[in-house]
Design goal:
Layout lengths: L1 E6 L5 E6 L5 H7 L19 E4 L12 H7 L10 E3 L12 E4 L5
Parallel strand pairs: 1-5
Antiparallel strand pairs: 1-2, 3-4, 3-5
C-alpha cells in the first residue's frame, strides 16, 4: 500500500493507503476527501481534482502532460508551480509518503 497524506484546506490532514496504479484522485474521491470533486471521472477534462503537490514531492509526482497543462489553466483556485490534476498522478511504490494539499475554492 502507498501512503498518501491529503492536507485539507483547513490545515487538517488525512492519511490514506492507496494501491499501486490507483490515481490520487481515485483515492481521494473514494474516501470522501473534500475538494476532490472529479466531475469528469479522471479524464483530465474538468480540473475539479486540482491539488498542490508538496514541494518536496514534485519529482516523485511525475511531469505534467500537455492536456493536463491546458486544464490547469482552468482551475478555480490559483494555479501554482506545484499545481497538478490528481487524476494524472498514478501511484507508484516510490510515492509512499506523498503529500498533496487541497486548495481553497475561490
Amino acid at each position: 500500500m502507498i501512503a498518501v497524506t491529503f492536507v485539507l484546506a483547513d490545515g487538517s490532514e488525512v492519511e490514506l493507503a492507496g494501491q499501486v496504479g490507483q490515481t490520487v484522485m481515485e483515492l481521494g474521491r473514494n474516501n470522501g476527501i473534500p475538494g476532490i470533486i472529479a466531475e469528469c471521472g479522471g479524464a483530465a477534462m474538468c480540473a475539479t481534482c486540482h491539488v498542490y503537490v508538496d514541494e518536496s514531492d514534485l519529482d516523485r509526482a511525475g511531469s505534467v502532460g500537455e492536456i493536463e497543462e491546458e486544464m490547469l489553466d482552468m482551475t478555480v483556485a490559483p494555479r501554482l508551480p506545484r499545481s497538478r490534476l490528481s487524476c494524472q498522478i498514478r501511484l507508484t511504490p516510490e510515492m509512499t509518503g506523498l503529500r498533496v494539499h487541497i486548495p481553497e475554492a475561490s
